[in-house]
Design goal:
Length: 226
Amino acid sequence: MLLDRRRIRKWAKWIALILAIIFAISFVGMGVGQGTGGMNVLDAFSCSDDQTPEPQTEQERLNALLQTLEANPKDTTTMLAVATMYESMYAAGEGNGTEYLVTAAAFLRNAIDVDPSLKDVYLRVAKIYMEDELQQFDAAVTVLNLATTVDPTNADVFLNLGIAQNSLGNKTGAVLAWQKYLELEPNGEMASVVRQQIEKLTATTTTTAATNTTSTTAGSTTTSGQ
């Protein structure tokens, strides 16, 4: 009888050991403590110091770009990225007045000074100069005249050059630029408007010239009569 008890105890120990092993395997393999929030206990001990970095602010990204540019002053890609950042910050109402808009234009000008083949940048900076907040049409004309050499088949260059020239009161320059636009884009989206503007400017010029001629002739006649 005693022997049977000893055997039972012996088998009970083995069974308990086997159950403990099974439980331990289940604990590790399946995970426990997934009640509240579905958190795995094992996760609490793994990489507890591994934290995801917080997103950079716009100013921090700008500072990083400026540092990159400082290391490589001729990096036009970074110049354009910096200009874009300043334009974005200006659009968000940051900076003092037009400060960021002017700064964006400066970086764009620098980019085309370093690499004159950046065709798209000429129009981009010219349009900034022509913004209502700046109205620096003389600067726009300078850039667009350069663009006519670099990108002579771009009708938009001549369209905007005409607008800038007209805004400066240079009617002849505006007409010449718009005539070139029509030559490149006779059926363009702005073609009908441009034709109307050319007719208006040439009519004004002709009328002014005729008036001046009449005045001169009248003056000469009066002098002769005396």
